């Protein structure tokens, strides 16, 4: 069986050398790490997980917020959004696994922990809930109506924005790409549900798929899985179809 691999200059070599196979596998691993690093530099998701290391005692100028304002909390790898309702109350969408396990409002109304949030994302269950400004921001900096400038869209009247948010309070399906907190806020603020963060993620997935080295990486990893796990349907089929799909999509 011949192994086809590319060197750093794009040349094609054919041969049986284990050394070349090893180099190809190292190149594949390197590529995967490169892609992960590439993706980690972008704020893809909008999930609102409070950082464990936040002090939670930051003072906010609540009197400067107007009912219907969009509050934006930038974090390390995400940006969370909410609608200010007045009286130190913020409506925002939060994934929460407890919503699928209990109807006890005494439990579900407590500040959502990271574990509850992550499991809620996996189970695709969330709620549009009301928290205090402090609990919403969890010690992070708050930007006000930053989306108005970044999206360059005309906002609805603040009172209409707040009323839209209040009508949507309650349990809702959750999706990182199709129904996250940014979709909720942009619907309330501009009348159309969009998520630039999710769009940016999809664009970068396209870049990865169109990179022909991804085909090589998936083929080498598929071959490695067959070598390590044996020739079986659960190793052979992915080893064939994943590179083929990447090749066609590219």
Number of strands: 8
Intertermini distance: 26 Å
Proportion of strand residues: 15-25%
Mean pLDDT: 76
Rg calculated over all Cα atoms: 23 Å
Largest sheet: 6 strands, antiparallel
Helicity range: 40-55%
Q: Could you say which overall geometry the principal axes of the C-alpha atoms support?
A: elongated
Side by side, the strands of the main sheet go 7-3-4-5-6-8
Transmembrane segments: 216-249
Organism: Odocoileus virginianus (White-tailed deer)
GO molecular function: acyltransferase activity
Pfam families: LRAT
Task: Spell out the blueprint of helices and strands.
Layout: E1 3-6, E2 12-15, H1 18-40, E3 70-74, E4 79-86, E5 89-95, H2 105-108, H3 114-123, E6 125-132, H4 133-137, E7 143-144, H5 146-151, H6 158-167, E8 170-173, H7 181-190, H8 196-210, H9 213-229, H10 233-249
Antiparallel strand pairs: 1-2, 3-4, 3-7, 4-5, 5-6, 6-8
Helix pairs in contact: 1-9, 6-7, 9-10
Description:
It contains ten helices and eight strands. The chain is α+β, with helices and mostly antiparallel strands and 250 residues long. The protein has a six-stranded antiparallel beta sheet with strand order 7-3-4-5-6-8. It has a two-stranded antiparallel ribbon with strand order 1-2. A hairpin with a 5-residue loop joins strand 1 and strand 2. Helix 1 packs across helix 9 (213-229) and helix 6 (158-167) packs across helix 7. InterPro entries: LRAT, LRAT_dom. Residues 70-197 form the LRAT domain. Keywords: Acyltransferase, Membrane, Transferase, Transmembrane, Transmembrane helix. GO terms for molecular function: acyltransferase activity.
